[in-house]
Amino acid sequence: MPSRVYLDWNATTPLRAEARTAMLAAWELIGNPSSVHAEGREARRLVEEARATLAAAVGALPRNVVFTSTGTEANALALSPGLRRSSGGAVEQLLVSAVEHASVLSGGRFPADKVSQIPVTRAGVIDLDRLKALLGDGPPALVSIMAANNETGAIQPIAEAAGIVHGSGGLLHIDAIQALGKIPFDIKTVDADLATFSAHKIGGPKGVGALVLAEGIAGLEPVLRGGGQELSRRAGTENVAGIAGFGAAVRAALQTLPEDAERMATLRDSLENGIRGIAGAMVFADHVKRLPNTILFTAPGLKAETAVIGFDLEGVAVSSGSACSSGKVQPSHVLSAMGYDATVAQGAVRLSLGWSTEPDDINRALEAWRKLGNTLLRA
């Protein structure tokens, strides 16, 4: 039996060998990282090394990195109405792009009547003119935009949005969970105020995330209260092994980022060209900058649930979009926001590649799609 082909890297990634090694070593330690004895100090050393690694990777200071349990928790921590620059007033409203992850669309700790959505174009890119209009002369706003969409792969104009947001006196939060390790990301270069990350998207363990703040951002209120861990920003004993794995994954991902991105883009283009030639398939957001590893496509009459199952039976793991819907195949809110009707949205299939994807994986995925195109759409 041939091995299976994994093309759902945007949902989660295999654990990198470097992360596994770091975690195994961390599990041998017995100290609590908040304890002052030698055992505790050794656990603290691993946490702080990972904190420094992530900070350096994204252009921040270690003291501005807050480790969380997940990217979702990091987003919830970021979306707070108390945020402000150290010399300014607190934000009073939240604007989120219409294609955000569910953890951002939920609004965090903002009241529902203080949350508004920013429309996107047909290509899934934020409408900067509408952003400017929504900010208007209103109270200071926190604006949340993902660096790159988890479904289409579309890369957002973050730096341009930052200029608009800061010009209105607001703050900018970036969900960079899909961007880290696939494209360069630096919080200072894009002029963001907050950014969130997740370990398991880059070869680290599941269950570890991080919120990174730009220097001078104040007013962050903890979601979890209790002890003074994470510089009093997030109570609870740190997941030492998970954080150590996160740091190791960051180092490994950034070390090979340029060549991995180039190779994934070549494989993605080959896969995309093959998909287009079967059953009248179309690829979404194909005329804008995208992540080098992501394809979201559909074909006339295609049903995503049936297609995902069909690919699975052929030994190829794909998805219908975000994996954060309790295993349910649902119409994509991203495509709805882009202006596609429910019939099209219900047929969208996502294929996402990773650092170990091989040309043979692409060939097998295309072979599976040929079979599905013939049986599902031409019967």
From TrEMBL:
Cofactor(s) the record lists: pyridoxal 5'-phosphate
Domain of life: Bacteria
Catalytic activity: (sulfur carrier)-H + L-cysteine = (sulfur carrier)-SH + L-alanine
Keywords for this protein: Iron, Iron-sulfur, Metal-binding, Pyridoxal phosphate, Transferase
Aminotransferase class V domain mapped to chain residues: 5-364
Any GO MF annotation of the entry: cysteine desulfurase activity
InterPro entries: Aminotrans_V_dom, Cysteine_dSase, PyrdxlP-dep_Trfase, PyrdxlP-dep_Trfase_major, PyrdxlP-dep_Trfase_small
PANTHER family: CYSTEINE DESULFURASE, CYSTEINE DESULFURYLASE FAMILY MEMBER
Function text: Catalyzes the removal of elemental sulfur atoms from cysteine to produce alanine. Seems to participate in the biosynthesis of the nitrogenase metalloclusters by providing the inorganic sulfur required for the Fe-S core formation.
Family listed: Belongs to the class-V pyridoxal-phosphate-dependent aminotransferase family. NifS/IscS subfamily.
Protein name: Cysteine desulfurase
Organism placement in taxonomy: Bacteria, Pseudomonadati, Pseudomonadota, Alphaproteobacteria, Hyphomicrobiales
